[in-house]
Amino acid sequence: MDDFNLIKQKKERGVTNQEFMDKSKEFFENADSIVVVGVNPDGIISTFYTQSTSLNAIGMMEVAKSQLISEMEV
Fold it and tell me: Phi and psi (nearest 5°) for 47?
């Protein structure tokens, strides 16, 4: 990624994607399950998860959705 995009990410979000992933790696290193969702520059949304079943990933996404909605209400 070029320097302009890194500077833009840092200004808009406070961290670059690399910094975010590094901190997330530290936090989730011993997690039982992880779900990651991202949007690439072409607008394509991709989801990756560590569980053996999609049902667990769906449940985790519902919890994440609920937590985000709660944060918005504050």
Answer: -125, 135
